Amino acid sequence: MSSLVSAVCFAQSSSPGFEAFKHVRAAADDGAPDGLLRIAQTADGYIWLAGDALYRFDGATFERIDWPQGSGKRRASPSTLMVSDRGELWVGLRDTGGVAVYRQGALRDMHMPDPPRGLAALAQAPDGTLWASSMSLDKRLQRRHGNQWERVDETLALPRGYIMDLIPARDGRLWVALSAENGESGTLAFLDPTATHFQTVPVALSGRPKIALDHSGALWISDATGTRMFLDASGKRKQPAISFPPVPGVTRAALAFDRNGGLWGTTASVGIFYIAKPYAPSAGPAAQVSRFGAANGLTSDTSYAPFVDREGNVWITTESGIDQFRRAAAQQDPAISADPEHGLSMARASDGSIYVGSRRTVFRVPSNGPAAPVLKLATDEISMCTARAGGVWVIEPRGQLILLQGTRVRRFPGYPGGEARIACAEDASGRLWLAVASGTLLWRDAAGWHRAGGLLADLKVWDLTRTQSGDLALVIPPDIALLHGNRLERISLGQAGIGTPWALMAGNGAGSQDLFISGSAGLARKRGNQLRHLDERRFPWITWVRTLQQTVDGKTWLFSRAGVYEVATADLDRAFDDPHAPLPVTKFDALDGLASTVQQGGFMGQQSAVGADGRLWFLNRQGAAFFDPAKLQPNSMPPPVTIRSLESNGGTWRDPVHVVLPGGTRTVNIAYAGLSFTVPQRV
Question: What is the mean pLDDT of residues 139-166?
Fold first, then answer.
């Protein structure tokens, strides 16, 4: 047995089209079996794998299931798997092993009287009939009624060729895809429930065709000419045709559909492919076919079987191991690259569009759209903040002040001195404020730029932001300050219990006037004249919060070094007001697909924003990423708990149900598992 949890390699997929997925892999050198041909999941929740032997996987351990001693079939390796309508695992075997079923903790022979040299597929029709196809041209198709097996390829007039796929439809029709003996052409045939012979469908196929039924019952075909819907759910030819070009180098493409309707395909030679929206092909269908291979982290380009488990995770078996793709909670935008030297900047315009600055380029993210470059800059070091007149301000050191409104660009004289910027904000009166590296404050009005005087001249500003009322909030360690028009209010944090202040964040919930202050030891909330705090002794995760957003659905999102945390805003308010109130929290981190959480602390200014479409954008070490709360798919399915084995007095019982131990037994070892595969480390 081999452990997956400690050895598995986690990697955010780098191939275009796969950004929305968290990729997890276990190769042979990670402890996984290699040469995995088939995959299935039984009703009890276990995942089963067919390779050099049969393996049972619980999310942490690959358990080899051998034949019982004395069975005479120990050399018969599995070639195909099927889960019956009773939830049992049926196993097709090589080396004339026939068929076995896993029952009561052991493989049991189902006594196929004259098995072929190897079985390619098993399938069960709605009426319970079991079908078995051969890997070769001998005894190509067998049928099991009740407990009786019979060879039927000749009596049912099955067309000539190797059986490539065997799929029963909901109405009982059996679909069969065949490849000619010379491999140059294919045939599609079907057998209706009461028919006495197969019928051939008049359609041109290349060699080694594969077929699949989607969730609606539509029939899809994939061969050397491409992947296409052949019949819709009503059994009619799809018009206009939905068709996608082949992946160059594909040998044979097995298909599966995920719970969102996405189409996944293996190739047996050049990795896998994925079509996110197969029912809505664009003018350029080739662009919709995304590819992922060994160069992107797949265990092998020799990929065999795609499979979707009960929780919606997509699995791929390969020559060298197994891969899993699951929906990532957060998604990096591929257009916006990281800049570890200068950092990224961000601002939200009044129309809800998001602007991000990275590597001398400003990108605009419209509602429900991708990031697109709108402005080239002369420097990497910029500050960005919301402009009251619409759009955003872009401030370049030793350069210009830019008002960017969509693609419209207006330029003004830059600030004096050219000192490195920290952050900017425009207050309710229209003054644009800028903190520079020395801690000095500058401001701009219609008359131009000014250096702050009076009490403001003595401040050493670490960061600044605009409150919901339009005041200026300043971090001036060890305290903070508010500028109400021309009146400065300094607020001591000595009794706040949050340590050194790190960031200021204006609450942006409905009607909120709150101001949040993050520190090294907790989080404070200023509401009116009251300052209350949550410290690390009560909630250890609430330190070093870098940025915060509140959404219309009543959630508060907190982004910190350790992860991203989602809480109910009402619960957060209650926790501030009641020192004994709990604060239920959902954490997102690398296990959920986060490539990174927040930028380094030295990069100031706005770090997150909520777009008009509801997406939560945030800056991190890998660039810019977003959560889409409307599309988050929490796993609400409770993991079934099962006892894998019981050991006592030198005996072992796999899947024990009724075990009677002798009197005086003092030691019992029980191995159990909680069968969830979305994030098994959290079970």
Answer: 95
